[in-house]
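Researcher: Next entry in the queue.
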Amino acid sequence: MPVRGCDCKLVLIVRKITASMVRRNKNFSFCGFRGPTCTTGFGALLVAFLTLTLAGCRNPPPYTGIQGPSQAVRRVKTWLAAGVGQYDGQVTGTLDYRHRIIPIIGHLNLTNAYHFILCLQSVNGRTAFILRRNWAGAHFIVPPPVSYVSVARAIGEGISLAFRRPEGPWTARWQGAVDTVKYKDANANDFQWHLVSMNRGMVLQQTRVRRFSGTGVMITYTHWNHHFPGVLTISDSHAHYSLRLQLRHHGPAPVMAAAP
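Model: Structure for this entry, 260 residues:
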């Protein structure tokens, strides 16, 4: 939802404070002057300064917090309206964890960025976990081996970030054939979505997330099909992993081997 104008409520509050100072602080002194005259003069200067500073909030722009070239804004709003497609199917790919390449298979049941179940296991069955994310956060249904707990949690966060969209004021920037959407969430994480134009409209090419801690995640999307990527690659240097997943609609869920 667009952010509404502030209507300069702060100026009204300052005026009330000034009137209170005049009534209650007869001995107030400022710059060598004493009494109500000084208080009123100081308050008037403060009110004038705030009025000039906040004058722009009386007539907010048409898209408060949604800024950028009009064509880019229209394209981005169309992309956002399409939403994130749901997915329930098999995934295969590779996990590069601390320079070890691990072939993996699994299943992803995704409703949105905050509600999904991810099952992953190595082809040899030695590393397996099932992670659920819902309104209560992320937790393991089947935990991985102790040495893989941190990377499994990081993968769950990466899946969530991969399907996030702006949840508040955003800005759009057009450069060449790429539209860039920027957004900062409530946890001060900076998001950048890079969109490219294709025959069927705008598709997401890459997401970059810079956390408040300074670490970052990069996600790339290819082989789009019906508003959902066919290949998803998540790289997180802080967690020392890179995950490449091929998503196949309506694939059978694999039988999860018990972790040793």
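Model: The chain is about 25% helix and 40% strand.
Researcher: Noted, moving on.
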